[in-house]
Amino acid sequence: MSGKPRLTYLNGRGRMEPIRWLLAAAGVEFEEVYLETKEQYEKLIKDGFLLFQQVPLVEIDGMKLVQTRAIMSYIAGKYNLYGKDLKERALIDMYVEGISDLMQMILMFPFSPPDAKEKNLESIKERATNRYFPVFEKVLKQHGQDFLVGNKFSWADVQLMEAILAVEEKVPGVLSGFPQLQVFKTKMSNMPTIKKFLQPGSPRKPPPDALYVETVLKVFKK
């Protein structure tokens, strides 16, 4: 096996996408293994690869890591994206947790029943514009710096950039009332590692479609 981290998940965004984002932002190349059948998933459990019988699974530095949060904390720490001290780390954690709450709504959206889609889309828009984006608009405006914490690129910036693009896919023009976030998005888009990740042919996954939803249900169906 090469020294590259090895990611095991489905061929779609889901809970692995923020991990892909973070590795890509750190300039780290990785390999991927895609689950397509329930049997593959059950074999991982049987072989003891999945501590809590859940993916994502990331094999890195001789470890088999599960739990998205733990995986991302490790990557952020390893690649110097986790602040310079405990206080900065606490701020990064706080921002990441908030963004994760918003992303959870987006993660579940493709699995909404057809008659609930419009209502759930409205909820995403409402939460983004009234609860989450105003926080980051205010943070950036108050300290007048390019990045959320310590004027240094961190995990929180990567997570926010992913969330902005994910919400924009569903609600075009959502940043119209957030000038600081517009500037932030432009700056992030031009960072070499992120710019590369946003190009066609990168490991970034497209928005989930019907086939992805079908595969998720097939692999994880009890």
Short overview:
55% of the residues lie in helices and 7% in strands. It contains 9 helices and 4 strands; from the N terminus they run βαβαββααααααα.
Q: What's the structural blueprint in terms of helices and strands?
A:
Elements: E1 6-9, H1 17-25, E2 31-34, H2 38-46, E3 57-60, E4 63-66, H3 68-78, H4 86-108, H5 117-143, H6 155-170, H7 179-189, H8 192-197, H9 210-220
Parallel strand pairs: 1-2
Antiparallel strand pairs: 1-3, 3-4
Domain GST C-terminal: 85-209
Protein name: glutathione transferase
Enzyme class: transferase
Shape: globular
- The assigned structural class equals alpha+beta
Domains, number: 2
* Helical run tally: 9
Fraction of residues in H or I helices: 55-70%
Strand order of the largest sheet: 2-1-3-4
Distance between the termini: 32 Å
Indicate the CATH topology of the largest domain: Glutathione S-transferase Yfyf (Class Pi), Chain A, domain 2
Give the SSE order as H and E letters: EHEHEEHHHHHHH
- Indicate the radius of gyration in whole angstroms: 18 Å
Per DSSP E runs of 2 or more residues, the count of β-strands stands at: 4
How does the major sheet shape up? 4 strands, mixed
CATH architecture of the largest domain: Up-down Bundle
The CATH C-level class name of the largest domain: Mainly Alpha
Q: Which regions are unreliable across 5 or more consecutive residues at pLDDT < 50? A: none
Report the sheet-strand fraction.
Answer: 5-15%
What is the average per-residue confidence, as pLDDT, rounded to a whole number?
94
